[in-house]
Amino acid sequence: MLPILNHLPKKKTPSYWKQVKKDLKSACHETQQTKPHLSLEDHQLLQEIRLETSLQNRDNVTRTKAYLDFYMEHKEIHWSLLAHMVSRNAGWSMTDLKGEYLPTILSTSKQKAFFSFLEKGNWLIFQDAYPQLLLYKYSTIQSKSLFHLLPHLHVSTFMEVIWNWYVKTKDASLLTSALIINEQNYIESRLIQNFHFKNSVLNTLTFQLQDLLNTNTILFPMIEDDKIRLIGATVHHFSELNERIKLGKHLYQLLFSTEATLKSILNWGLKHPHTGSRKDYWDHLFHSIKEGIPGEKRVLTNCEVQSGPRIYSPDLSIWKKVAHQTPDHQDWFTSDSFIKFLIPSESDSTGDVKRIHCRTLEMLERLT
Predict the structure, then answer these.
(1) Paired residues of 230 in beta bridges
(2) DSSP classification of residue 219
(3) pLDDT tens digits, 290-304
(4) Domain segments of the chain: what residues?
Protein backbone atom coordinates (compact mmCIF):
# COMPACT_ATOMS: atom_id res chain seq x y z
CA MET A 1 0.00 0.00 0.00
CA LEU A 2 1.38 3.39 -0.96
CA PRO A 3 1.66 5.89 1.92
CA ILE A 4 -0.67 8.34 0.32
CA LEU A 5 -3.17 10.63 1.90
CA ASN A 6 -2.73 10.47 5.67
CA HIS A 7 -1.16 13.91 5.65
CA LEU A 8 -2.58 15.55 2.55
CA PRO A 9 -4.24 18.94 3.04
CA LYS A 10 -7.37 18.84 5.15
CA LYS A 11 -10.13 21.39 5.56
CA LYS A 12 -8.96 22.17 9.07
CA THR A 13 -5.41 23.28 9.71
CA PRO A 14 -3.50 21.01 12.10
CA SER A 15 -3.32 21.91 15.79
CA TYR A 16 0.40 22.68 15.64
CA TRP A 17 -0.02 25.24 12.84
CA LYS A 18 0.09 28.24 15.16
CA GLN A 19 3.41 27.13 16.64
CA VAL A 20 4.90 26.48 13.18
CA LYS A 21 3.86 29.98 12.17
CA LYS A 22 5.35 31.43 15.37
CA ASP A 23 8.66 29.61 14.85
CA LEU A 24 8.88 30.79 11.25
CA LYS A 25 8.21 34.39 12.19
CA SER A 26 10.88 34.18 14.88
CA ALA A 27 13.43 32.67 12.44
CA CYS A 28 12.60 35.28 9.80
CA HIS A 29 13.35 38.17 12.12
CA GLU A 30 16.58 36.81 13.56
CA THR A 31 19.38 39.19 12.61
CA GLN A 32 22.06 36.52 12.06
CA GLN A 33 22.05 32.78 11.65
CA THR A 34 24.57 31.07 13.89
CA LYS A 35 26.18 28.01 12.36
CA PRO A 36 26.79 25.21 14.87
CA HIS A 37 30.20 23.71 15.53
CA LEU A 38 30.94 20.75 13.26
CA SER A 39 32.46 17.44 14.23
CA LEU A 40 34.71 15.46 11.92
CA GLU A 41 31.76 13.22 11.10
CA ASP A 42 29.69 16.27 10.20
CA HIS A 43 32.37 17.52 7.82
CA GLN A 44 32.60 14.12 6.15
CA LEU A 45 28.84 13.87 5.76
CA LEU A 46 28.58 17.34 4.24
CA GLN A 47 31.36 16.54 1.81
CA GLU A 48 29.56 13.35 0.78
CA ILE A 49 26.28 15.21 0.28
CA ARG A 50 27.92 17.89 -1.85
CA LEU A 51 29.65 15.26 -3.99
CA GLU A 52 26.50 13.19 -4.50
CA THR A 53 24.51 16.32 -5.38
CA SER A 54 27.12 17.34 -7.94
CA LEU A 55 27.12 13.87 -9.52
CA GLN A 56 23.34 13.79 -9.88
CA ASN A 57 23.07 17.41 -11.04
CA ARG A 58 24.84 16.85 -14.37
CA ASP A 59 21.79 17.38 -16.56
CA ASN A 60 18.01 17.15 -16.61
CA VAL A 61 18.01 13.38 -17.13
CA THR A 62 20.20 12.62 -14.10
CA ARG A 63 18.26 15.05 -11.88
CA THR A 64 14.93 13.64 -12.90
CA LYS A 65 16.04 10.07 -12.21
CA ALA A 66 17.56 11.05 -8.85
CA TYR A 67 14.23 12.50 -7.68
CA LEU A 68 12.38 9.29 -8.57
CA ASP A 69 15.04 7.04 -7.04
CA PHE A 70 14.81 9.01 -3.81
CA TYR A 71 11.02 8.81 -3.76
CA MET A 72 11.13 5.03 -4.22
CA GLU A 73 13.30 4.82 -1.08
CA HIS A 74 11.31 7.40 0.90
CA LYS A 75 7.70 7.51 -0.27
CA GLU A 76 6.79 9.66 2.70
CA ILE A 77 8.59 12.58 1.01
CA HIS A 78 5.87 13.45 -1.51
CA TRP A 79 7.75 16.43 -2.93
CA SER A 80 10.38 14.19 -4.50
CA LEU A 81 7.84 12.54 -6.81
CA LEU A 82 6.30 15.91 -7.63
CA ALA A 83 9.79 17.23 -8.46
CA HIS A 84 10.42 14.18 -10.66
CA MET A 85 7.29 14.79 -12.71
CA VAL A 86 7.84 18.54 -13.06
CA SER A 87 11.48 17.94 -13.99
CA ARG A 88 10.33 15.60 -16.77
CA ASN A 89 8.31 18.48 -18.16
CA ALA A 90 11.34 20.75 -17.99
CA GLY A 91 13.22 18.21 -20.10
CA TRP A 92 10.43 18.06 -22.67
CA SER A 93 10.45 21.84 -22.90
CA MET A 94 14.22 21.79 -23.44
CA THR A 95 14.03 19.34 -26.34
CA ASP A 96 11.00 21.09 -27.85
CA LEU A 97 13.41 23.93 -28.63
CA LYS A 98 15.12 21.67 -31.16
CA GLY A 99 12.08 19.61 -32.05
CA GLU A 100 9.48 19.80 -34.81
CA TYR A 101 7.99 23.25 -34.37
CA LEU A 102 9.97 25.75 -32.30
CA PRO A 103 13.07 25.92 -34.58
CA THR A 104 10.80 27.41 -37.25
CA ILE A 105 9.62 30.08 -34.77
CA LEU A 106 12.76 30.78 -32.73
CA SER A 107 16.18 31.83 -33.98
CA THR A 108 19.18 29.74 -32.94
CA SER A 109 20.17 32.40 -30.39
CA LYS A 110 16.66 32.39 -28.89
CA GLN A 111 16.68 28.60 -28.70
CA LYS A 112 19.92 28.77 -26.72
CA ALA A 113 18.59 31.54 -24.46
CA PHE A 114 15.40 29.62 -23.66
CA PHE A 115 17.38 26.43 -23.04
CA SER A 116 19.78 28.26 -20.70
CA PHE A 117 16.79 29.60 -18.76
CA LEU A 118 15.17 26.16 -18.38
CA GLU A 119 18.44 24.41 -17.60
CA LYS A 120 19.50 27.02 -15.03
CA GLY A 121 16.20 26.78 -13.18
CA ASN A 122 16.27 22.98 -13.20
CA TRP A 123 19.86 23.00 -11.92
CA LEU A 124 19.25 25.64 -9.24
CA ILE A 125 16.29 23.86 -7.67
CA PHE A 126 18.13 20.54 -7.58
CA GLN A 127 21.32 21.91 -6.03
CA ASP A 128 19.28 23.49 -3.23
CA ALA A 129 16.68 20.75 -2.65
CA TYR A 130 18.61 17.52 -3.18
CA PRO A 131 21.05 18.13 -0.29
CA GLN A 132 17.98 18.51 1.93
CA LEU A 133 16.67 15.16 0.75
CA LEU A 134 20.03 13.52 1.36
CA LEU A 135 20.23 15.02 4.84
CA TYR A 136 16.82 13.47 5.55
CA LYS A 137 18.08 10.15 4.21
CA TYR A 138 21.09 10.17 6.54
CA SER A 139 18.90 11.28 9.43
CA THR A 140 16.80 8.14 8.96
CA ILE A 141 19.89 5.96 8.65
CA GLN A 142 21.43 7.37 11.83
CA SER A 143 18.07 7.57 13.65
CA LYS A 144 18.66 11.18 14.65
CA SER A 145 17.95 14.62 13.24
CA LEU A 146 20.81 16.10 11.25
CA PHE A 147 19.00 19.23 10.17
CA HIS A 148 21.28 21.43 12.24
CA LEU A 149 23.62 20.99 9.25
CA LEU A 150 21.27 22.78 6.85
CA PRO A 151 22.96 26.20 7.31
CA HIS A 152 26.25 24.67 6.14
CA LEU A 153 24.49 23.66 2.93
CA HIS A 154 23.24 27.25 2.54
CA VAL A 155 19.63 26.16 2.89
CA SER A 156 17.12 28.80 3.95
CA THR A 157 16.21 29.17 7.62
CA PHE A 158 12.62 28.71 6.41
CA MET A 159 13.36 25.07 5.56
CA GLU A 160 15.32 24.46 8.75
CA VAL A 161 12.22 25.32 10.77
CA ILE A 162 10.02 23.16 8.54
CA TRP A 163 12.30 20.11 8.56
CA ASN A 164 12.46 20.22 12.34
CA TRP A 165 8.67 20.29 12.46
CA TYR A 166 8.47 17.46 9.93
CA VAL A 167 10.59 15.31 12.25
CA LYS A 168 7.94 15.84 14.95
CA THR A 169 4.76 15.61 12.87
CA LYS A 170 5.55 13.60 9.72
CA ASP A 171 3.22 16.03 7.97
CA ALA A 172 3.89 15.42 4.26
CA SER A 173 1.59 18.25 3.19
CA LEU A 174 3.38 20.82 5.35
CA LEU A 175 6.77 19.69 4.04
CA THR A 176 5.67 19.62 0.40
CA SER A 177 4.07 23.06 0.54
CA ALA A 178 7.21 24.41 2.22
CA LEU A 179 9.52 22.93 -0.40
CA ILE A 180 7.35 24.42 -3.17
CA ILE A 181 7.51 27.85 -1.48
CA ASN A 182 11.25 27.47 -0.95
CA GLU A 183 12.14 26.40 -4.49
CA GLN A 184 10.15 29.20 -6.11
CA ASN A 185 11.59 31.85 -3.82
CA TYR A 186 15.06 30.39 -4.36
CA ILE A 187 14.90 30.86 -8.13
CA GLU A 188 13.13 34.23 -7.93
CA SER A 189 16.25 36.40 -7.51
CA ARG A 190 18.70 33.96 -9.11
CA LEU A 191 16.68 33.32 -12.28
CA ILE A 192 13.38 35.17 -12.69
CA GLN A 193 14.70 38.59 -11.65
CA ASN A 194 18.08 38.04 -13.28
CA PHE A 195 18.69 40.92 -15.70
CA HIS A 196 20.03 38.67 -18.48
CA PHE A 197 17.12 36.21 -18.39
CA LYS A 198 14.50 38.95 -18.05
CA ASN A 199 15.73 40.53 -21.28
CA SER A 200 16.61 37.41 -23.26
CA VAL A 201 13.61 35.28 -22.24
CA LEU A 202 10.88 36.58 -19.92
CA ASN A 203 10.32 39.97 -21.56
CA THR A 204 10.34 38.64 -25.11
CA LEU A 205 7.22 38.50 -27.24
CA THR A 206 7.85 34.79 -27.91
CA PHE A 207 7.72 33.96 -24.20
CA GLN A 208 4.58 36.01 -23.71
CA LEU A 209 2.91 34.29 -26.67
CA GLN A 210 3.25 30.98 -24.84
CA ASP A 211 0.38 32.07 -22.61
CA LEU A 212 -1.84 32.57 -25.65
CA LEU A 213 -0.78 29.33 -27.33
CA ASN A 214 -0.94 27.26 -24.12
CA THR A 215 2.43 25.75 -24.96
CA ASN A 216 3.44 25.68 -21.28
CA THR A 217 1.36 22.77 -20.05
CA ILE A 218 2.65 20.55 -17.24
CA LEU A 219 1.73 16.95 -18.07
CA PHE A 220 1.44 13.99 -15.72
CA PRO A 221 1.06 10.85 -17.88
CA MET A 222 -0.69 7.94 -16.20
CA ILE A 223 -1.56 4.38 -17.16
CA GLU A 224 -5.32 3.82 -17.12
CA ASP A 225 -6.90 0.70 -18.64
CA ASP A 226 -3.64 0.01 -20.50
CA LYS A 227 -3.84 3.45 -22.14
CA ILE A 228 -1.98 6.69 -21.47
CA ARG A 229 -4.09 9.45 -19.96
CA LEU A 230 -2.75 12.96 -19.32
CA ILE A 231 -3.58 15.19 -16.37
CA GLY A 232 -1.87 18.43 -15.39
CA ALA A 233 -2.23 22.19 -15.65
CA THR A 234 -1.33 25.01 -18.01
CA VAL A 235 1.24 27.50 -16.77
CA HIS A 236 0.18 31.15 -16.93
CA HIS A 237 1.99 34.20 -15.54
CA PHE A 238 5.20 32.24 -14.95
CA SER A 239 7.10 35.36 -13.92
CA GLU A 240 4.75 35.88 -10.95
CA LEU A 241 6.12 34.23 -7.81
CA ASN A 242 2.75 33.76 -6.10
CA GLU A 243 1.28 32.15 -9.22
CA ARG A 244 4.14 29.65 -9.43
CA ILE A 245 3.61 28.67 -5.79
CA LYS A 246 -0.13 28.22 -6.34
CA LEU A 247 0.58 26.12 -9.43
CA GLY A 248 2.98 23.88 -7.50
CA LYS A 249 0.40 23.28 -4.78
CA HIS A 250 -2.27 22.57 -7.41
CA LEU A 251 -0.02 20.02 -9.13
CA TYR A 252 0.67 18.39 -5.77
CA GLN A 253 -3.06 18.01 -5.17
CA LEU A 254 -3.52 16.41 -8.60
CA LEU A 255 -0.64 14.00 -8.15
CA PHE A 256 -1.73 12.78 -4.73
CA SER A 257 -5.48 13.28 -5.17
CA THR A 258 -6.32 9.56 -4.93
CA GLU A 259 -4.37 6.38 -4.42
CA ALA A 260 -5.41 5.21 -7.90
CA THR A 261 -4.08 8.40 -9.53
CA LEU A 262 -0.80 8.24 -7.66
CA LYS A 263 -0.32 4.56 -8.48
CA SER A 264 -1.12 5.10 -12.18
CA ILE A 265 1.32 8.00 -12.54
CA LEU A 266 4.05 6.21 -10.59
CA ASN A 267 3.63 3.03 -12.63
CA TRP A 268 4.01 5.04 -15.82
CA GLY A 269 7.12 6.77 -14.50
CA LEU A 270 8.77 3.51 -13.49
CA LYS A 271 8.04 1.90 -16.86
CA HIS A 272 9.25 4.86 -18.92
CA PRO A 273 12.74 6.15 -18.01
CA HIS A 274 13.07 9.84 -18.74
CA THR A 275 14.89 10.66 -21.99
CA GLY A 276 13.65 14.20 -22.66
CA SER A 277 11.69 13.07 -25.73
CA ARG A 278 7.91 13.32 -25.67
CA LYS A 279 7.97 9.86 -27.20
CA ASP A 280 8.23 8.76 -23.56
CA TYR A 281 4.49 9.25 -23.10
CA TRP A 282 3.04 9.15 -26.64
CA ASP A 283 5.16 7.13 -29.03
CA HIS A 284 2.24 6.96 -31.49
CA LEU A 285 2.52 10.72 -31.94
CA PHE A 286 6.18 11.60 -31.27
CA HIS A 287 9.48 10.06 -32.33
CA SER A 288 13.05 10.88 -31.33
CA ILE A 289 14.24 10.46 -34.94
CA LYS A 290 13.01 12.61 -37.82
CA GLU A 291 10.66 10.62 -40.02
CA GLY A 292 9.26 11.22 -43.49
CA ILE A 293 10.70 13.36 -46.25
CA PRO A 294 11.29 17.15 -46.32
CA GLY A 295 8.07 19.04 -46.91
CA GLU A 296 5.83 16.04 -46.24
CA LYS A 297 2.48 17.18 -44.87
CA ARG A 298 1.13 15.91 -41.57
CA VAL A 299 -2.52 15.80 -40.58
CA LEU A 300 -3.33 15.75 -36.85
CA THR A 301 -6.71 15.11 -35.33
CA ASN A 302 -7.20 14.81 -31.59
CA CYS A 303 -3.53 13.88 -31.07
CA GLU A 304 -3.61 11.17 -33.72
CA VAL A 305 -1.52 11.27 -36.91
CA GLN A 306 -4.01 10.79 -39.73
CA SER A 307 -1.31 11.03 -42.38
CA GLY A 308 2.36 11.91 -42.57
CA PRO A 309 5.25 11.31 -40.17
CA ARG A 310 5.19 11.46 -36.41
CA ILE A 311 6.23 14.70 -34.69
CA TYR A 312 9.97 15.01 -34.15
CA SER A 313 10.85 15.14 -30.44
CA PRO A 314 14.57 14.46 -29.79
CA ASP A 315 16.02 13.21 -26.54
CA LEU A 316 18.09 15.43 -24.26
CA SER A 317 21.41 14.49 -25.88
CA ILE A 318 20.49 17.08 -28.52
CA TRP A 319 21.87 19.63 -26.02
CA LYS A 320 25.39 19.67 -24.60
CA LYS A 321 25.88 19.50 -20.84
CA VAL A 322 26.26 22.87 -19.13
CA ALA A 323 28.69 23.91 -16.38
CA HIS A 324 27.07 26.30 -13.90
CA GLN A 325 28.61 28.83 -11.56
CA THR A 326 27.97 28.52 -7.84
CA PRO A 327 24.94 30.67 -6.95
CA ASP A 328 24.98 33.29 -4.23
CA HIS A 329 24.18 32.07 -0.72
CA GLN A 330 21.81 34.83 0.30
CA ASP A 331 18.77 33.59 2.23
CA TRP A 332 15.51 34.54 0.52
CA PHE A 333 13.56 34.31 3.80
CA THR A 334 13.56 37.95 4.83
CA SER A 335 9.77 38.40 4.88
CA ASP A 336 7.14 36.30 6.61
CA SER A 337 4.57 37.07 3.89
CA PHE A 338 4.99 33.61 2.34
CA ILE A 339 3.97 31.73 5.48
CA LYS A 340 0.33 32.01 4.38
CA PHE A 341 1.02 29.65 1.47
CA LEU A 342 1.56 26.79 3.91
CA ILE A 343 -2.16 26.81 4.66
CA PRO A 344 -3.79 23.64 3.27
CA SER A 345 -5.67 23.99 0.01
CA GLU A 346 -7.69 21.72 -2.22
CA SER A 347 -7.64 21.18 -5.97
CA ASP A 348 -10.61 22.58 -7.85
CA SER A 349 -10.17 20.79 -11.18
CA THR A 350 -9.83 17.30 -12.64
CA GLY A 351 -6.55 18.24 -14.30
CA ASP A 352 -7.66 16.81 -17.65
CA VAL A 353 -5.40 18.59 -20.15
CA LYS A 354 -5.47 16.31 -23.18
CA ARG A 355 -7.79 18.61 -25.14
CA ILE A 356 -5.57 21.65 -24.45
CA HIS A 357 -2.42 19.72 -25.36
CA CYS A 358 -3.91 18.40 -28.59
CA ARG A 359 -5.28 21.79 -29.62
CA THR A 360 -1.86 23.37 -29.03
CA LEU A 361 -0.14 20.76 -31.22
CA GLU A 362 -2.69 21.25 -33.99
CA MET A 363 -2.22 25.03 -33.79
CA LEU A 364 1.57 24.71 -34.01
CA GLU A 365 1.18 22.35 -36.95
CA ARG A 366 -0.85 24.98 -38.83
CA LEU A 367 1.48 27.84 -37.86
CA THR A 368 4.61 26.08 -39.07
Answers:
(1) 221
(2) E
(3) 998 888 889 999 999
(4) 17-22+40-321+330-367
